Amino acid sequence: MDILVEYGDVLARGFLHTIELFLLAGVGSLVLGTVLATLRVSPVPALRAVGTGYVTLLRNTPLTLVFFFFVFAYPKLELLQFPFFTAAVIALTIYTSAFVCEVLRSGINTVPVGQAEAARSIGLGFAQSLTNVILPQAFRAVVPPMVSVLIALLKNTTVAAGFSVNEVGSVIPFLNEEGEPTTNAFIWIAVGFLILVIPLTLVQRSFEKRWSVAR
Amino acid sequence: MGAKGLRLGAVLAATLALALTGCGREGAPGGGEPQVQQNVAQNVQVPGSPTFDRIKQRGRVTIGVKEDQPGLGFRDPVTGQYSGFDIEIARLAAAQLGLDPNTQIDYKPIPSTAREQALATGEVDYYVGTYTINDKRKEQVGFAGPYFMAGQDVLVRKDNTDITGPETLKGKKVCSATGSTPIQRVKEQQLTEPQNIVEFQRYSECVQQLLDGQIDAVTTDDAILKGYAAQDPDKLKVVGKTFSQEPYGIGVAKDDIALRNKINDVLEQAAKSGEWKRVYDATLGKSGTGAEPPPVDRY
Description:
The structure holds two protein chains of two kinds.
Chain A: H1 2-41, H2 45-59, H3 63-73, H4 84-110, H5 113-121, H6 126-141, H7 143-156, H8 171-177, H9 182-211
Helix pairs in contact in A: 1-2, 1-4, 1-9, 2-4, 3-4, 4-6, 4-7, 5-6, 7-9
Chain B: H1 2-27, H2 50-58, E1 61-65, E2 68-69, E3 73-75, E4 82-83, H3 85-96, E5 105-109, H4 115-120, E6 126-127, H5 135-138, E7 142-150, E8 152-157, E9 174-177, H6 181-188, E10 197-200, H7 203-212, E11 217-221, H8 222-231, E12 236-238, E13 246-252, H9 257-273, H10 275-282
Parallel strand pairs in B: 1-5, 1-6, 9-10, 9-11
Antiparallel strand pairs in B: 2-3, 3-4, 7-13, 8-11, 8-12
């Protein structure tokens, strides 16, 4: 308990940055992931190839390497420069969106072909049938795996500690240098993550119940 | 002759290149293998030390070290050999405990955050790796020593003339290891603005960013910085104004006072006999700066 009293502000600031990273990267990867999933099911072979290439590349690259690229290699290209926090959001977003894409694509596969055919027969184009008929059903089907991806994202934010972003992962070396037993720090950070993940799980439950598709 | 001569020329050129790079490495504290010969003590007794009993029974000693700090504790990624000042101190202690430092040591790289656990669980018998002695840590582990007195300093690019000490860091991008004492000091004393503070997991990443021009200075203990400066003397320099006292100790299990006393005896003996000096000159001393063994603190 001593740690909470003495270093409460450090922990709180760390978790605040963790939450910021999670929310920004979460929204970003849901959007980018949806775009990628659309590419992967589109009727144009070139677009499908782009989507497949992206997912193959990012899903097979460790997150740390993605971070490494943005912090150590990207600046050498001398393009637009951005602060470490932005770099962390970008790295997390492009990494997680590959997983979001695949989850969503599996959802699209659960929608019966008849739905797409029916949409086309009433005169909807590809974009219209996707956004009005297929994607809404796909999202409903993949609530549990999508939340799992988001929980993974939340935990992945700790990688940013190694790249000059002071989220909660950087609290452990800090407390260690202060001479606090690392085990205690780990326990409180684990408790903090529990507090963050449980609401996500509750959201998942409620969406599952409300959105379940009767087939 | 023609083809043969050419081939010979190529081999010579390659050998020369190897020799040249080899020379560069040898001069620098960092690469290579342990250099100081140690006499192994005979019939060593450390009554009442559970750690020593364990070492005796095993016939080997496990020493926790750093593997990524050139000049102090560094593991050559090619040969797997450890070298540096901390390694030599670890070898010295092992020899005085009656173990052959060339054949009976197992090195175990332990990162800073896991040191206390490694000592508490007996994963390592003792730890030598830029371990600053402080009162909070004494509640968790025992410290023999200090065997070296380091101080916080600043590493900059060779051509930099703006940064001459801690008071000239304002407006400069300053880097150190995540959550480390040096970067905490920079924050507390407001040596630079918060947005100019950069933290990476390893000092080598800071040094890389310094060489790339992304940051202006790396700050931590002078001993660590000297190791990097000696690796790349054409591009890097240590400013040379220390602004803290970091006594490096040998970490032992907290309740093993017998072993702590024994290692303290070894360090005092080494300081008196000139052994400490030999170890220093063969490693960190190559950076061109001198040092004296600090008095041992028996608490």
